[in-house]
Amino acid sequence: MNRSYVPYLALALMVLVAKVLQAWADAVPLLFLGDSETYIYSAVEGFTPICRAFVYGWHIRWWGLETGSIMGVVIAQIVAGGITAWLVGAALLYFYRVRFRVAGGMTMVFAFDPMQILHERMVLAETFTLLFFALQLVLALSYLRRPLLVTLVSVCGLGLVVVSLRIMFVPV
What pairs with residue 122 in β-bridges? Predict the structure, then answer.
């Protein structure tokens, strides 16, 4: 019986427990005046900011305005941070063939990184940007392992999503 998926499920369970405990301990939304204000205004008014992530307002609209609370955005960002942490461990296991202890340790280090936890609570584009950047890196590694045109196009498409969330990723 093939049980090659068990380490990936174990990583997912570890991240799930970590993120649930973190959210239980503290899930208070935080605002960074200027940036958060612009994003919330773009979600409410539907305008496109020129000097900041021009699609992050859509995330706030989907998860914040529909529920009537900014907590939906925070919960979505905690989930996105958890997926990113899982991707770190999964990429280490799959592409680099490290031991489970190493992958699990790095996953937990990422899941408990103070800056990651802070960004999950703040109304800023960093958490989703990092998720899409991690997905882009995983697809790029997949392309290097098995070059397919659809994978390359997906890497480019995710690159556009990443840049639309944080313009600082243009050089990458």
Answer: 30
Angle subtended at Cα 146 by Cα 145 and Cα 148, rounded to the nearest 5 degrees? 140
Quote the CA–CA distance of 37 and 59 in Å, as a whole number: 14
User: Cβ neighbours of residue 13 under 8 Å, at least 6 residues apart?
Assistant: none
Alpha-carbon span 71 to 79, nearest angstrom: 12
Element (H, E) at 172: none
pLDDT in the model for residue 124? 92
Cα gap 101→165, rounded to integer Å: 33
Buried b (16+ CB within 10 A) or exposed e, 51-79: ebbbebbbbbbebbbeeeebebbbbbbbb
Residue 30, beta-bridge partner list: 122
User: How far apart, in whole angstroms, are the C-alpha atoms of residue 81 and residue 16?
Assistant: 10
DSSP code at position 51:
S
Sign for the pseudo-dihedral over CA of 86, 90, 93, 96: negative
pTM score: 0.93
Is the pLDDT at 169 greater than 80? The verdict is no
Instruction: Give the integer Cα–Cα distance in Å for 141 and 11.
Output: 20
Are 106 and 89 within 8 A, CB to CB?
yes
3, 51 in Cβ contact below 8 A?
A: no
